[in-house]
């Protein structure tokens, strides 16, 4: 079983995160000015790198605008990661990522209060 983990993105990760997003949908990335949003999320410590076996496979953005409650705004997983695995393995991995993100939100909310 793969080891899936999260870590806070740093400004050094900006190019990696922007590339994941740009490769997913170039038009939306440009039209929605997502590079700016990603930079803001990194600086606000609301962007996390998703890693599998110590290799970055995507990122997630958290948001705290709704009454200071953390919620997941965006999850992006590299298409190459999705392509070489059978679908059921990808779904199981997505479930594990979701659980990890939910635990992270709870931990971050506890730290804020």
Account of the protein in words:
With 113 residues, the chain is an alpha+beta fold. It has a single domain (4-112), classed as 3-Layer(aba) Sandwich (Aminopeptidase), CATH 3.40.630. 51% of the residues lie in helices and 28% in strands. It contains five helices and four strands, in the order E-H-H-H-E-E-E-H-H. A four-stranded antiparallel β-sheet has the order 1-2-3-4. A hairpin with a 2-residue loop joins strand 2 (47-52) and strand 3. Helix 1 packs antiparallel against helix 3. The longest helix has 26 residues, at 87-112. It is globular, with a radius of gyration of 14 Å. The termini are far apart. The model has no long low-confidence stretch (mean pLDDT 78).
Précis, in short:
The protein contains five helices and four strands. It has one domain (about 5-110): Gcn5-related N-acetyltransferase (GNAT) (Aminopeptidase, 3-Layer(aba) Sandwich), CATH 3.40.630.
């Amino acid at each position: 079983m793969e080891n899936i983990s999260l870590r806070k993105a740093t400004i050094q990760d900006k190019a990696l995160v922007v590339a994941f997003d740009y490769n997913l949908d170039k038009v939306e990335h440009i039209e929605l000015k997502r590079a700016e949003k990603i930079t803001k999320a990194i600086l606000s410590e609301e962007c996390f790198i998703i890693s599998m076996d110590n290799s970055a496979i995507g990122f997630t953005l958290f948001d705290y605008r709704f009454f200071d409650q953390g919620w997941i705004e965006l999850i992006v997983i590299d298409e190459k990661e999705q392509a070489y695995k059978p679908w059921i393995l990808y779904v199981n991995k997505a479930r594990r990522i979701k659980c990890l993100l939910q635990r992270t939100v709870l931990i971050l909310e506890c730290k804020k209060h």
